Amino acid sequence: MLQSVQIFGIKGSQATRAAERFFKERRVQIHFVDLAQKPMSPGEIKRFVDKFKLPALLDTEGKAYEDAGLKYLRMPDPDLLRRIEREPKLLKLPLVRKENRLAVGHDEAAWKEMLG
Predict the structure, then answer these.
(1) How sure is the predictor about 42, in pLDDT bands with cuts at 50, 70 and 90?
(2) Which of 62, 63, 72, 108 is the most buried (most CB within 10 A)?
(3) Counting runs of H as helices and runs of E as strands, what totals does the chain give?
């Protein structure tokens, strides 16, 4: 049976391309969601937040995070979630899902575990 994963990322992102390459090399079918074109659904984001908590999903080293002033700004989670929906570059990409298994960022160990 062909395995498949869902990758949430942005086309130009180096980490997103690394995930695509990782799974393609292992002949895993990829369902790619370009967050620059289509935001994640609230339910999908919630799935990652429930597992990792919101701070773990944020790319605190990224330019988008700094440009948004989030280094110095404290905002409630619902506001932050709305912000992420509008600005996916705030996320530590890619977000990868295989059934109930999730991974955040460039995490080959988690990706290998997903594939069993």
Answers:
(1) confident
(2) 62
(3) 6, 4
- Domain 4-115 CATH (choose: 3.30.70.2470, 3.30.450.40, 3.40.30.10, 3.40.50.150): 3.40.30.10
Question: On the CB side of 83, how many CA atoms lie within 13 Å of its CA?
Answer: 19
Question: What are the tokens at 41?
Answer: 């659904």
Position 17, amino acid = R
**Residues 64-106: pLDDT tens digits?**
999 999 988 888 989 998 898 889 899 999 999 999 999 999 9
DSSP 29-47: EEEEEETTTSPPPHHHHHH
H/E run at residue 2:
none
CA distance 30 to 24: 8
